[in-house]
Amino acid sequence: LSDDVVATDPTTIALHSADMPGLRAGQAVALVRARTTEDVSTTLRIAHETRTPVVPQGARSGLAGAATAIDGSILLDLSEMNRILRIDTSDRAAVVQPGVIVADLQAAVEAHGLFYPPDPASADRATIGGTIATNAGGMRCIKYGVTRDSVRSLQIVLADGTVARTRPATIKGVAGLDLTSLIVGSEGTLAVITEATLSLIPAPGRPRGVTATFASLAEAFAAADEIASGHRLPATLEFLDGVALTGVRMVQPELAIPHDAVAWLIAITDAHVGAEDDLASYEAAFRAHGARTVMRAETPEELAVQLTARRALNPALNAIRGGATHGDLAVPRSLLRDLAVLADELSAETGLPISLAGHIGDGNLHPTVIYDPEDPAQVELAHVTSAKLHELAQAVGGTISGEHGVGVVKLGSVDGELAPALREIQRGIKRIFDPLGILNPGRKL
Ligand SMILES: Cc1cc2nc3c(=O)[nH]c(=O)nc-3n(C[C@H](O)[C@H](O)[C@H](O)COP(=O)(O)OP(=O)(O)OC[C@H]3O[C@@H](n4cnc5c(N)ncnc54)[C@H](O)[C@@H]3O)c2cc1C
């Protein structure tokens, strides 16, 4: 590897050692800024020979600590492999390197009248490789699915440096087991992604939406349920609860959220045909379930304003007491009410406000416990409460992560939803891909 690809000075390494959760990072021995698949292959061959752990990294925007440095590891940064290699309108596919930023790909395919649906809120910084490795979600999953649904084929580098393709880049293909799906969401523990062939779809229509506020959670859940289970599927169906709205009023007072509102919903359609009927049906569902205010957003500008409340979620929650645990869980949508009741009880027990805002259309919420960071007892209690919330999700048949992944942050909770025999099978798969255990060890599995 050439000198300009490898850095070993501690300052540079330290700058690349953390991701978003701000966990204490280990001390890596080198940073490789890969520019080619050959660089990745060489790095893994050396790591394999020397039994050195390797931490693949994209933009390090992950929220599970999966890209944090491990002691004695090589940090393998893929962010400079950032070229869109081909946009094929006939095959409706894009072939890209792993470091391409999601928003850049979205804009590039848009110029061809096409659409790349995965849209995590971090799209302006997250990489294609990172979003595939975490199977990222976002606000459009109710209609378009998660990242996995847009991945056709991957070029991967195996733990010993071998370069391989998971399957031909055909639309259909069932020869062999579906290893593409296995790599998606594997958080860098099975292989390193060096190229992706992604499925594109025709560009949808102009997004238009309706927002509503409610004076009770039950009304908002009933309205969301009617929309999500109806035949006019929205592209986006998002939810803010009373705690989140308290924070939104603090950071976005100009939105004038009514003071009696304890729930907020937005339903967005991007249909070419029938959009007006979609909006009318969302509006009717909101009104039928007691919405206090209903507003339409017809233009991109109006929609951007309406979405401000949802986009302000994290700063809003932080504003309430200064500290907030940012969680991620998913339950079958029909069980959201049960989860909300349990979260309410937990909030009453601890005296800490809990928000359950998020992607209500997918049953994927971002439970957040609010605390005062200056009060060590509250900090401790908030984190214990957050862990309990995730356990509650498992107890009602859900999961500890709908989209952010396991990383190290949630490793201890996986047993709550995976039978020991299945967990052992998963570790066995890891051993087949990575017999020496050098690929992102101690994460995900
Ligand atoms: C403000 C904000 C909003 C967010 N919103 C969402 C959201 O709406 N939905 C959502 O799902 N997530 C969201 N996230 C989380 C995060 O952005 C996603 O998990 C994203 O997919 C991570 O991409 P990345 O390039 O930053 O990957 P990193 O954080 O660098 O890495 C994530 C994982 O992928 C692995 N990896 C990275 N590149 C490769 C590769 N080429 N080959 C193999 N493994 C690799 C890493 O080892 C690690 O395990 C948000 C984060 C922030 C900060």
Explain briefly what this protein structure is.
Helices cover 34% and strands 19% of the residues.
What does this structure look like?
The chain has 445 residues and is an alpha+beta fold. Helix content is 34%, strand content 19%. The protein has 14 helices and 21 strands. The protein has a five-stranded antiparallel sheet. Strands 1-2-4-3 form a four-stranded mixed sheet. It has a four-stranded antiparallel sheet with strand order 13-14-12-15, with helices on both faces. A hairpin with a 4-residue loop joins strand 5 (84-88) and strand 6 (93-96). Helix 7 (217-228) runs antiparallel to helix 9. The two termini are 30 Å apart. The relative contact order is 0.12. The mean pLDDT is 96. The structure holds flavin-adenine dinucleotide (FAD).
Order of the strands making up the biggest sheet: 5-6-10-8-9
Q: How is the main sheet built?
A: 5 strands, antiparallel
Helical content (DSSP H or I, runs of 4+):
25-40%
Mean pLDDT: 96
Determine the N-to-C terminus distance.
30 Å
Q: Determine Rg (CA atoms, Å).
A: 22 Å
Note the total helix count.
14
> Which molecules are bound besides the chains?
flavin-adenine dinucleotide
The proportion of residues in beta strands is: 15-25%
**Which residues sit in consecutive blocks of at least 5 with pLDDT less than 50?**
none
Shape: globular
Helix/sheet category: alpha+beta
Instruction: Please give the number of β-strands.
Output: 21
